[in-house]
Fold:
Amino acid sequence: MEIKSLMLFRQGLLVLALMGISSATLSPTGINYEVVALTAIKFNLHDPYNVLENWDSNSVDPCSWRMVTCTPDGYVSALGLPSQSLSGTLSPSIGNLSYLQSVLLQNNAISGPIPATIGKLEKLETLDLSNNTFSGEIPTSLGDLKNLNYLRLNNNSLTGACPDSLSNIGGLTLVDLSYNNLSGSLPKISARTFKVIGNPLICGPKAGNNCSAVFPEPLSLPPDGLKAQPDSGSKGHRVAVAFGASFGAAFFIILFIGLLVWWRYRFNQQIFFDVNEQYDPEVCLGHLKRYAFRELRAATDHFNSKNILGRGGFGIVYKGCLNDGTLVAVKRLKDYNIAGGEIQFQTEVATISLAVHRNLLRLSGFCTTENERLLVYPYMPNGSVAFRLRDHIHGRPALDWTRRKRIALGTARGLVYLHEQCDPKIIHRDVKAANILLDEDFEAVVGDFGLAKLLDHRDSHVTTAVRGTVGHIAPEYLSTGQSSEKTDVFGFGILLLELITGKEAASGR
Structure:
């Protein structure tokens, strides 16, 4: 009894030491500041259609997020959220996205002041906040945007004077401040096109300013020129009517086509096509079964939200039942055609095809359509370790100590196989409780190979952009971008802490 107590005491000291090391290395400086900024922007916006659904604060890489574009180095370079019915306010945290080159938030209902912190975005070339309900004055800090080419703030409720600092920007092509409530005199802005029409306190009859303020000015005929041909009035009227009718017809045709394109874009995820005899030379499909999209759609009851098993940065996993009664898990990649989506699909297929082990999730099949990529796995009836750790049966934890030990050993066997028995070896890069699944016998199965990297046995590491989940990432990987087997070992250590404590690695509690 004394020996057993001594062993438990030593284990407790070890856990406390590891927890101390973990909390010391995973300091706030290790968190991606761009993730923090984007999640703050999401928090301040009301998103009725969930277009920002995959903006996950636990992620360390926003490049896979919808409406976000990154540079080849992995920095956020563009934020494009036009016409998404967003409301709320624009967070000042946008000023922390220092690599932004384009901000497109037009045609929403965003209100409040324009954050002065936008002036910190030295690389910004395009800023379009038009057709919202922004109020207050135009920040003078916008004059610090030396690389700005296009500035559109029209159709808002902005007040005050147009800041003189805008005259400091030498490369402006377009400045549109029309249809606001601006007042005062206008600075000498060097933009080729400068619009302030629709501002009564600037464009009033006594203002003395050029109301359209468009340079170069549009060609206009003097009134005397109209009086020189009195007999041409009737003919001119007929020409005007004909021109108006033609223009109106063309306008409605263009409007119809535009609405059709917008509708297809807006509901892109609900439009699918089965493509016959598809071939992708990038993916080695081997023995995998190709499923028809209609078969998987029927199996998941049209991807019913009631069948959702889990969500990740790249997609949603649904429970499905095939025609023969087989239960499967269908991973539907979201926005596969944006940056990283198709690569993630190819990585997962190719990696799982290489690795076959009882403690690794095997891929049963796949489905590709013009707009969809789906992966089919065996259904794991006991869910994930993350779920079971917080599950209780009759007031007792669902995972007793015997099962937790078995899970730790099974996960270790799977990782050893990836690191030592695969050629090339495979670095998982996202080892965590949510990615360890449990079969009907509570055997651990390592899953989700979307971030995996292949590594030659002669190499010590591979350098990549940082990927993974906050709380599970090795500190040297965060600081250098170099991942190796040690990256997975660190994640496995955090998993052991979760198994022992029953708590999340980064829950905020």
